Amino acid sequence: MKGLGRVALKVSEHEQGNWAVLQVCGEMDLVTAPAVRQHVHEAVAEGRRSLVLDLAEVRFCDSSGVGVLIAARRLLRSCQGRLRLILPAQGAVEGSHVNRVLAALGVRRLFEVYPDLASATEEGADPLSA
User: Fold this and answer.
1) How open is the CA angle 85-73-114, to the nearest 5 degrees?
2) Which of 112, 116, 111, 109 minimizes the C-alpha distance to 94?
3) What is the pLDDT of residue 7?
4) Residue 1: its pLDDT value, please?
5) pTM recorded for the entire structure
């Protein structure tokens, strides 16, 4: 039945200072991950080189979603851009799933992760440790 319903993902975009922020809500899986990839590509095509992916409201992320994150990192690095992820602190219920998936796959260290939008868009802020 799951496949018969609406796609369980919403991506909204706004700007915060010099950063383009993509807020992703729902599930990042084989069906929905291409939408996130498309938003990242559109932001880069528009000349954005500083991108924040707010994953605080992502309830589920499979290997397809992780692939999109890795591809986004590669794309931004290729054009001397910056990518930051927002994942709530370890104890938070929402969003901690993505952090666990990235850590389990051994790719968490590839990303600059911040606990919230304010710290992710602050120029001198240090990322959370992996």
Assistant:
1) 15
2) 116
3) 56
4) 38
5) 0.89
- Position 91 scores a pLDDT of 53
Residue stretches of the chain with pLDDT short of 50: 1-5, 93-95
Which residue type does 56 have?
A
- What is the reported pLDDT for 4? 45
Burial profile 34-55: b = 16 or more Cβ within 10 angstroms, e = fewer = ebbbebbeebbeeebebbbbbb
Apex CA 7: angle with CA 6 and CA 10, to 5°? 115
Q: Tell me if 102 sits within 8 A of 128, measured CB to CB.
A: no
Return the exposure string of 79-100: e unless at least 16 CB atoms fall within 10 Å of the residue's CB, then b. Answer: eebebbbbbbeeeeeebbbbbe
Phi-psi region of 87 (alpha: psi -120 to 50; beta: other; left: phi over 0): beta
Q: Check residue 12 and give its pLDDT.
A: 96
- Residues written for the chain: 130
Domains of the chain are 9-120 (3.30.750.24)
